[in-house]
What we know:
By secondary structure, this protein is of the alpha/beta class. Helix content is 53%, strand content 13%. It has a seven-stranded mixed β-sheet with strand order 3-2-1-4-7-5-8, sandwiched between helices. Strands 6-9 form a two-stranded parallel ribbon.
Amino acid sequence: MENTSGDNFTVIAGLPMYNEEETIGTIVLQVSDHVDKVICVDDGSSDSCASIATRLGAEVIRHRFNRGYGGALKSIFHRAIELDVDVLVVLDADGQHAPEDISRLVQPIRDGDADVVIGSRFVEGGDGISMPAYRKLGIKVITAASNLSSDLGINDTQSGFRAFSRLALQRLRFDSEGMELSLELLEDAKEKDLTVKEVPTIIRYDVPKGSSYTPVSHGFVVFIYALITLSQKKPLLVLGLPGVSLLLAGAAMGMQAVNQVSEYTQFTVGAGLSAIWVGVLGLALIATGVVLQSARTFMRLLIVREFGMD
Length: 310
Ligand SMILES: Nc1nc2c(ncn2[C@@H]2O[C@H](COP(=O)(O)OP(=O)(O)O)[C@@H](O)[C@H]2O)c(=O)[nH]1
Ligand SMILES: [Mg+2]
């Protein structure tokens, strides 16, 4: 591969692309100035973005069926590993990300300070131009939820402007096909001891088609993913907390039923039974939480003993 930087350090850009004919031409040209090669993944687009990108010198990988953003990222990773590049930078094809910030994302990897670099709106110097307030709030909620389970320490978990080192490309694995892959990638990076850094960038929302996902569908899918991960990582917290609340509610209801018995000297079967049901449900939740938590601890111990990794 031709190298634009004059040394042997190769940087390529990967652009997931879905019906982006309005912007792709400009983006490919701008991005080409900062990398050695541009790869676009066309995911069954019905417009002419693929032919525009090809004509402007990008390599276009075509999926016959739409496999979503995650599917596109898998193809980009695959190709980057095949080409044995030093850095892969992934950015949107819709003009939201600033190609002139590519070198900023590459630098920490070049310096050996990071394996994954995120272009972040929420560190000093970063911002979202015309970013709707509800999106900002949604990202904060998702980030808080994911930090509860994994303490990623990342301010902008939902930025699609990311750079990956060769080591990151080799180590990272993800299954998600949709936008929830943003969290899966970061959690996997943490588990595999990869260093993740954020550098400031400005992400624009005043472009023709900034997002093909509605904020509700994007937010909902990612939030549910964060909750499922939390329940897998901290089952005792997720099940135990409602369990204890139910147990307390059951106890309170039971006390009330007993009071009624003494007041009217007549057994209040209905209230007594509800109290027992609620209490038993609480106990069942706590017990499940404890069992899952111990199973998790046991499995981790086993993995450490067998494979010597945590
Ligand atoms: N290959 C592929 N790219 C997609 C798909 N959905 C979105 N994209 C591209 O992925 C990038 C990010 O998608 P976008 O809708 O802008 O998401 P957002 O900006 O994170 O809300 C854009 O460049 C889209 O063209 C898809 O299903 N397949
Ligand atoms: Mg976008």
